[in-house]
Amino acid sequence: MIVHPTLDLVEAVASQLADPDTAPRTPREHRQHLAYGPPGIALLHIERALNGLGPWRRAHDWLAAASHEPLTSGPDSHPFYGTPAFAHALACAADHLPGSYQHALNAMDRQIEADVRRRLDAAHHRIDAGRLPQLAEFDTIRGLTGYGAYLLRRNPGSPTVRAVLDYCVRLTEPIAHHGETLPGWWTETGPSGDPDKRFPGGHANTGVAHGIGGVLALLALAARHGTITDGHHGALRTILAWLDRWQEETGRGPAWPYWISRGELRTGRPAPRVLRRPSWCYGTAGLARAQQLAALALGHVVRQIDAENALVAALTDADQLGATTDNGLCHGFAGLTHITARMAEDAHPSTEGRLRAVIPALLAAATPPGTDPELTATALVRGEAPGPGLLDGAAGTALALLAPSTAAPPRSAWDACLLIA
Length: 421
Hints:
The protein has helices at 6-16, 38-50, 56-66, 83-94, 102-128, 135-138, 144-154, 159-171, 212-224, 232-246, 262-267, 284-298, 301-315, 318-322, 333-346, 349-366, 373-382, 394-406; strands spanning 175-177, 180-182, 203-205, 248-249, 254-255, 259-261. It is mostly helical. It has a two-stranded antiparallel ribbon with strand order 1-2.
């Protein structure tokens, strides 16, 4: 079923981003960035081309714009920047264009694997020395979990994928630090990755973007691909037990804190919090999907149903929806719509209907009655914020709304970088 005006907005955004030469100029520091630059915009045109909604030429032009200058690799790159970011977009196109881009992709894969091996060596040395990790060591955006997402898609049975999974298993093992036993993903910084006086003693991050939620999703997706390493299921259970320990009740359903502070860890009780939005990057939406995937990997039907019901509860709670204030992929209505559709595809028969039933309201929240697609697209693409990019901007909003609007799953693996599929 085609829903309007949502698809009209998608078309208007795609039209305004048709040509890199006429689209808003990308700052130089974002030219290789998946979240903000041409690689992420290319994903919109790749997905539309695969659905017969636009020409491949637009995707080619944005890929060319992304690779206009030499791509960054090595320590200055990460899954959302440089060679890995471009490789993700290029692979989404190459998967459906036999023979195209393969030489370039193979070269990039070799570079990415070499970079991952260096990162893994450093991570294991850090663990051996009894030091705590930085978020950027393991998270989805900058770290080994994000690299694992790319490598799992490209070659799920490769030794490098297994090495990343071995590291993820080791990350879930407790670590002794200054006389206290901490979870292996505890960091000494705040959620920004920098020292933060609001987090004396650091924190344990639960988010899919920057915390253990992403590790959970990667391990679950790998298991569903049939790629399992020693201790794999035990690591899944360790993370799930942590989330169970800190689960909160909202009065409508369960929710999970964005992070746990040292003080909360010592008392065993979460501090009172203002109810937060249920987004992909942090909170109930991303964690519900990660737990659903883990339950499917472990064959835990009750946990699967609980995760699916948690998302429905969050998305029918006026207070939680009221905390959602934009349409973006990362933490807005478009992202919630896309995650809901992905969860519905895998849902238990008892909850699938409930998940699908909330999608029309989410689409209406993203494009309320009376929305002018052209004016809205202009504000998204050309406004000072959020801009044209993938994670917060126009391209990601359009891309996340496309599949739910047509009631068909994505044709490309564009959302593999988010570890939700």
